[in-house]
Write a structure and sequence with these properties.
Blueprint (H helix, E strand, L loop, with lengths): L1 H20 L2 E4 L5 E7 L5 E7 L2 E8 L2 E3 L10 E15 L7 E14 L4 E10 L2 E10 L4 E7 L2 E4 L2 E6 L12 E4 L5 E2 L3 E5 L4 E7 L7 E7 L2 E6 L8 E4 L2 E3 L2 E7 L2 H5 L3 H4 L15 E6 L1 H5 L14 H13 L4 E4 L26 H10 L3 E7 L4 H17 L4 E5 L13 H16 L3 E4 L15 E4 L7 H4 L5 H6 L4 H4 L14 H4 L21 H10 L4 E3 L14 H5 L6 E8 L3 E8 L2 E8 L4 E6 L7 E10 L12 E8 L4 E6 L4 E11 L1
Parallel strand pairs: 22-23, 22-28, 23-24, 24-25, 25-26, 26-27
Antiparallel strand pairs: 1-2, 2-3, 3-4, 4-11, 5-10, 6-7, 7-8, 8-9, 9-20, 9-21, 10-19, 11-18, 12-13, 12-15, 14-17, 15-16, 16-21, 17-18, 29-30, 30-31, 31-36, 32-35, 33-34, 33-36
Helix pairs in contact: 5-6, 7-8
């Protein structure tokens, strides 16, 4: 009630002193969300947000501080307020949805101090959230060093939240569910609910030449932007006297799945910069990768080396036989022997037992794409010195997709999520585009929607992926139910789902394992049922979607038919039901086929899913991959059933899921009614 009184007082003050503080209001197109901008008595910009007549953000300050005490935060007066509306539809070459509506109302508040600084605060209200950014012009200087961002999010009536603690180097952390008032720091996306029933998530869009934003608590339920610094403590270096920030975003929904179905981040990025995009192709892939994490293969050229010519051909043959477009090879190049020391990789020199000429010739003969791998080990100078040469060399071999890696600390004391790193990740995407190469980045900067501008930035890691199950206690069933409502709100994730040898029984029995004790690491295993592994191919979206297991575990397995049928490239997607950390159901359409995935946490669950998303007047054959009656992620994860039935858009399916389980369904049209 105290917060409510404060908010009502704020609006009363606005009504009585608009002429002094210049209060101005912006509504979303459906008039459900309202943003009020005002200046305090000291000329400090503030904003407040309501949605559906419910308070979301109480009056919160805006601004920056600099090393040289240049005013970027107070003593402003309003010079002008400009309103406009945009309603357009645009298409992308790939994505959860090929066609996206971009509909917002904009308010640009032009501010001026008494000396040298002009600030335009640009607010955009969509039906599903808010974006705002700073646009500064500072006369009389030739450069700026930003020390702190003062952007505050004073959350009204905050209830529960889901986030990882703020970290300047990694997003590979466990998520914590806790009251908003208990949060001390957070990486973004930071997802929360209010006691009035709203769902929201704080993030950023169009992060191009700026520091990544984390959040820190300054008071209960109040979070402030905390930018990742350079080694000397400066947060952002600006060459010149003007700059604009990334968009600060708040996605808003009345249901949790509204956040998943939002397109705000993409809409706040610039349109595609490429004249053509036909060289950018989503694909399914397998790879020489999982065996290394299990310890039965190695990245270096020894008696366990995984990326050999012989092994490469086996994987290429398997891909061709199973409707899979690509194969990834890790550990193919010189430099892995320097791991842990100088991290000196060579990106154009294969190991002696990996014949690049023969492997690429064979892949071309089988019509299989090769995904190259560039692990940097955090040695950014070494990678940037070779990048142009390496990309040109790769294209000569017909390699047009590269998986990058940044495991370990950056040389020079730079953080993974600093402005230094943001500039590097952007340089990689832009350089790759010159050679028509697509990127899958691991240990990356977080996605902020730049895939709209540079659609060759296809997918990235940025959370605890499948490999954590190989050499740690792994990812809990709950963790996988949090990801769609947090990390995946930012963009596609290369989680690499689809491990069938859930208990690692086949790997522990491998002759190679007897030579190396890599699997004896406590309770390492995959913490789901087999059916949930199938469903995660649908739910954990990536346009480069991997079947992560060793191919020996797929051969002859009836459940692998789902991946054979699955399409990495989809036309339309919708999250149907779900709650963070509990369960989720997602459907995607690719051409005339639909694929549905539903999963649950440690609690068995039954969902009723209306099939109204199917095309009307059409019958479909539904192939249902479900948990067995006795399935349980802990005690009996491999129990599953495959059944078929005819359905149409008027039907409702009952989806029963075991503890830690799920269900995957493919829908193929069979006739017109």
């Amino acid at each position: 009630m105290k917060q409510l009184s404060i908010f009502l007082l704020f609006f009363l003050l606005l009504a009585t002193s608009c002429s002094q503080r210049g209060a101005t209001t912006l509504f979303s197109p459906n008039e459900e969300t309202q943003l009020v901008f005002s200046l305090t008595e000291k000329g400090i910009p503030t904003y407040a947000i309501t949605s559906g007549k419910q308070h979301l953000i109480l009056p919160s300050v805006l601004g920056f501080t600099t090393r040289d005490s240049i005013n970027l935060s107070q003593y402003f007066r309003i010079v002008d307020v400009l309103h406009s509306t945009t309603d357009e539809t645009w298409s992308q070459p790939w994505g959860e949805n090929k066609t996206i509506r971009n509909h917002y109302n904009e308010m640009a508040v032009v501010l001026q101090d008494s000396i040298a600084t002009q600030l335009t605060l640009r607010f955009r209200l969509f039906n599903d959230g808010v974006g705002f950014r700073y646009e500064y012009q500072v006369n009389g200087v030739d450069s700026l060093q930003l020390m702190n961002e003062l952007t505050t999010f004073q959350i009204a009536d905050g209830d529960q939240s889901w986030s990882t603690p703020a970290n300047y180097d990694t997003y590979e952390l466990d998520y914590t569910k806790q009251p908003v008032s208990a949060v001390k720091s957070a990486n973004t996306p930071f997802t929360f609910t209010t006691s009035t029933g709203l769902y929201a998530s704080i993030h950023e869009a169009a992060l191009t030449d700026f520091a990544g934003m984390t959040l820190k608590s300054t008071a209960p339920s109040t979070l402030e932007a905390d930018l990742v610094p350079w080694p000397d403590g400066v947060k952002v270096r600006i060459a010149g006297n003007h700059f604009q920030t990334p968009w600060r975003t708040i996605q808003i929904g009345h249901k949790a799945v509204d956040l998943i179905n939002s397109s705000i981040l993409l809409n706040l990025n610039e349109p595609c910069q490429f004249a053509t995009t036909d060289w950018i192709r989503p694909m399914k892939y397998v790879g020489v990768w999982w065996g290394m994490h299990l310890g039965i293969e190695s990245w270096t050229m020894d008696n366990r080396h995984g990326a050999t010519t012989v092994n490469a051909k086996r994987y290429i043959d398997f891909a061709q036989a199973n409707n899979i477009e690509g194969v990834l090879f890790e550990g193919w190049n010189n430099g892995w022997e320097s791991w842990g020391s100088r991290q000196d990789f060579d990106f154009t020199q294969p190991y002696a037992d990996f014949d690049m000429d023969e492997v690429t010739r064979y892949a071309k003969e089988k019509n299989i794409q090769i995904i190259g791998h560039h692990e940097t080990g955090g040695n950014i100078p070494n990678y940037e010195a070779q990048m142009d040469k390496a990309y040109e060399w790769s294209t000569k071999y017909g390699i047009h997709s590269i998986k990058t890696g940044y495991a370990g600390g950056f040389k020079g004391g730079y953080y993974h999520h600093s402005q230094y790193a943001v500039r590097h990740y952007r340089k990689v995407v832009e350089t790759a585009a010159k050679y028509h190469i697509t990127i899958d980045a691991h240990e990356p900067i977080k996605p902020t929607g730049i895939r709209r501008t540079y659609p060759n930035m296809m997918t990235r890691e940025g959370a605890k992926g499948m490999e954590w199950n190989a050499w740690s206690e792994g990812n809990s069933p709950t963790y996988l139910e949090v990801l769609p409502f947090t990390r995946l709100l930012a963009g596609p994730m290369d989680y690499t789902p689809g491990t069938f040898d859930i208990l690692f029984d086949n790997s522990r029995n491998s002759p190679l394992h007897k030579k190396w004790n890599g699997l004896d690491k406590g309770n390492s295993r995959v913490h789901t049922t087999l059916a949930k592994q199938l469903a995660n191919w649908v739910i954990l979206y990536s346009p480069l979607q991997m079947a992560s297991d060793r191919i020996e575990n797929y051969k002859g397995h009836p459940a692998f038919q789902f991946f054979r049928d699955f399409k990495a490239d989809c036309d339309w997607s919708r999250a149907l039901q779900g709650e963070p950390g509990e369960f989720v159901a997602v459907v995607r359409r690719a051409g005339e086929q639909y694929f549905l995935g539903a999963t649950t946490n440690e609690t068995p669950r039954t969902l009723r899913i209306p099939l109204s998303f199917l095309k009307k007047e059409t019958n479909y054959q539904a192939r249902i991959y479900a948990d067995g009656a006795d399935a349980d992620w802990k005690e009996n994860p491999l129990s599953y059933t495959i059944t078929e039935q005819h359905v149409n858009a008027s039907d409702t399916l009952t989806i029963k899921m075991a503890a830690g389980g799920g269900q995957a369904i493919s829908f193929v049209p069979v006739s017109i009614k």
